[in-house]
């Protein structure tokens, strides 16, 4: 099976060569236990252990204090965070790894605790109706306030600065988090966005924020080092859009026509869509036809389905979350069809080394001389 394309190198974005097509997906792990929310030695070990991935996508890293919605998430907006990530990247690169920083603004999926007692911000003043992880455990999201038009441009600049910070820290590129009901989707989806300025109303207007962020980041670090994550059939933190297929077809066709991204990542639906016929059940099948650039897919893939996806040419790369979390040497295990560690769900968020850096590597069984 080692002759399968998924184990072969691929070049994405300029001359960045990935040793295989298995990516480690971004995962919130809540291990930045310090006042600066900076990566620690534990992050260095965690990410460097997984450097056999063709590409590592960092946990979502907030671009500003305003963009934070969960405790102990490692950001990319202050000097301590930049210095912490430098040490992570040194370890990853020493292990021949390639790593992108995921740029994250949670918008309304936050709590006033993270905003100095003030309301979080969003496209509109609609509560997400979810929960976020605070020092008091999981608490209901706070009702946000709508960003003023000038403030939207300030957030765009925060993305720009965070991209510059990421490159300064040594990341090989960045990924804009446009999925999972966070700020980008809060502008895209008409179930949330009720603005009356140039960022609301029509599909073109609701997509304006996304493309302004893309333009700012690309101007700062180059299109060859910029990727985007979208979840067109997402129901996490959002009811999505009343014309979801039309909206995302517009976005992806525009990416195809105007942008030469490092790659586009599309996330498959993780929820039951039986009561949501306006959402595409198979994201890659439906939206892949509109995009000819490098395409990554994500969404509960296993070894066989990932191999088939890349062999078929429907996607160029596949990203894995829980499987990479529990199996630091996932590419080798897949190549050898070796047994997989099971993830420990009770250690996903917060804590220390347990369930983070203590998952065993696979070792080939010894062959008896007899």
Question: How can the largest sheet be summarized?
Answer: 8 strands, parallel, barrel
Question: What structural class results from the helix and strand content?
Answer: alpha/beta
Number of domains: 1
The separation of the N and C termini measures 29 Å
Count of beta strands: 14
Secondary-structure arrangement, i.e. CATH architecture:
Alpha-Beta Barrel
Number of helices: 11
CATH class: Alpha Beta
N-to-C series of helices and strands: EEEHEHEEEEEHEHHHEHEHEHEHH
Give me the CATH superfamily. Aldolase class I
Write the topology of this structure.
Layout: E1 10-11, E2 17-18, E3 22-24, H1 41-49, E4 55-62, H2 79-94, E5 99-104, E6 121-122, E7 131-134, E8 137-140, E9 145-146, H3 149-169, E10 173-178, H4 183-188, H5 203-206, H6 208-221, E11 226-230, H7 244-258, E12 263-267, H8 283-287, E13 295-298, H9 303-311, E14 317-320, H10 322-326, H11 330-336
Parallel strand pairs: 3-4, 3-14, 4-5, 5-10, 6-9, 10-11, 11-12, 12-13, 13-14
Antiparallel strand pairs: 1-2, 7-8
Helix pairs in contact: 1-2, 2-3, 3-6
Describe the protein in words.
There is one protein chain. With 370 residues, the protein is of the alpha/beta class. The protein has one domain (5-347): TIM Barrel (Alpha-Beta Barrel). 30% of the residues lie in helices and 15% in strands. The chain contains 11 helices and 14 strands. It has helices at 41-49, 79-94, 149-169, 183-188, 203-206, 208-221, 244-258, 283-287, 303-311, 322-326, 330-336, and strands at 10-11, 17-18, 22-24, 55-62, 99-104, 121-122, 131-134, 137-140, 145-146, 173-178, 226-230, 263-267, 295-298, 317-320. The strands form 4 sheets. An 8-stranded parallel β-barrel has the order 3-4-5-10-11-12-13-14, surrounded by 4 helices. A two-stranded antiparallel sheet has the order 1-2. It has a two-stranded parallel ribbon with strand order 6-9. A hairpin with a 2-residue loop joins strand 7 (131-134) and strand 8 (137-140). Helix 1 runs parallel beside helix 2, helix 2 crosses helix 3 and helix 3 (149-169) packs parallel to helix 6 (208-221). The longest helix is centred in the middle third of the chain and has 21 residues, at 149-169. The radius of gyration is 20 Å and the shape is globular. It starts with 9 loop residues before the first strand and ends in a 34-residue tail after the last helix. The relative contact order is 0.14. The model has no long low-confidence stretch (mean pLDDT 96).
């Amino acid at each position: 099976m080692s002759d399968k394309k998924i184990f072969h190198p691929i070049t994405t974005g300029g001359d960045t060569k990935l040793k295989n097509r298995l990516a480690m997906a971004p995962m919130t792990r809540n291990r930045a236990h310090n006042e600066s929310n900076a990566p620690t030695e534990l992050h260095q070990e965690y990410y460097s252990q997984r450097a056999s991935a063709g590409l590592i996508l960092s946990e979502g890293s907030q671009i500003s204090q305003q963009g934070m919605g969960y405790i102990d998430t490692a950001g990319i907006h202050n000097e301590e965070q930049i210095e912490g990530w430098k040490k992570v990247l040194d370890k990853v690169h020493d292990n021949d790894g390639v790593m992108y920083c995921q740029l994250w603004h949670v918008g309304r999926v936050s709590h006033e605790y993270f905003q100095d007692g003030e309301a979080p911000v969003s496209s509109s003043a609609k509560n997400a109706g979810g929960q976020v992880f605070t020092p008091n455990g999981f608490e209901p999201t706070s009702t946000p306030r709508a960003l003023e038009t000038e403030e939207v441009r300030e957030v765009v600049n925060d993305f720009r600065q965070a991209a510059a910070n990421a490159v300064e820290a040594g990341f090989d590129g960045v990924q804009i988090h446009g999925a999972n009901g966070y700020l980008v989707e809060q502008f895209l989806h008409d179930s949330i966005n009720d603005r009356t300025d140039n960022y609301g109303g029509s599909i073109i207007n609701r997509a304006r924020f996304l493309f302004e962020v893309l333009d700012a980041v690309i101007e700062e670090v180059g299109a060859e080092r910029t990727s985007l994550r979208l979840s067109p059939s997402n129901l996490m933190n959002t009811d999505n859009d009343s014309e979801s297929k039309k909206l995302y077809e517009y976005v992806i066709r525009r990416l195809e026509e105007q942008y030469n991204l490092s790659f586009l990542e599309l996330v498959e639906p993780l929820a039951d869509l039986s009561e949501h016929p306006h959402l595409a059940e198979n994201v890659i099948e439906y939206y892949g036809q509109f995009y000819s650039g490098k395409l990554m897919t994500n969404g509960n893939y296993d070894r066989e389905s990932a191999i088939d996806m890349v062999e078929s040419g429907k996607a160029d790369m596949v990203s894995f979350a829980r499987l990479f979390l529990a199996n630091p040497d996932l590419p080798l295990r897949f190549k050898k069809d070796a047994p997989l560690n099971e993830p420990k769900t009770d250690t996903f968020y917060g804590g220390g080394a347990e369930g983070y850096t203590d998952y065993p590597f696979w070792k080939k069984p010894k062959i008896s001389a007899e």
